[in-house]
Amino acid sequence: MSASEKAKAKAEQAEGKLKEAAGRASGNERMTAEGRGEQTQGDVREAKEKGKDAFKR
Length: 57
Prior knowledge:
Shape: elongated
Number of strands: 0
Helix content: over 70%
Strand content: under 5%
């Protein structure tokens, strides 16, 4: 997995977790949903990179 893509994926996941937690704390459902979406994007990016690595070998 490319280091920069891995870093982007982890950053998206972390940002999503923070946004989801802030949304829950403030009772803002829209922010909570956006946070979950960002986490999912990070998960998809990470899975894509792992898939690419698996085919390289």
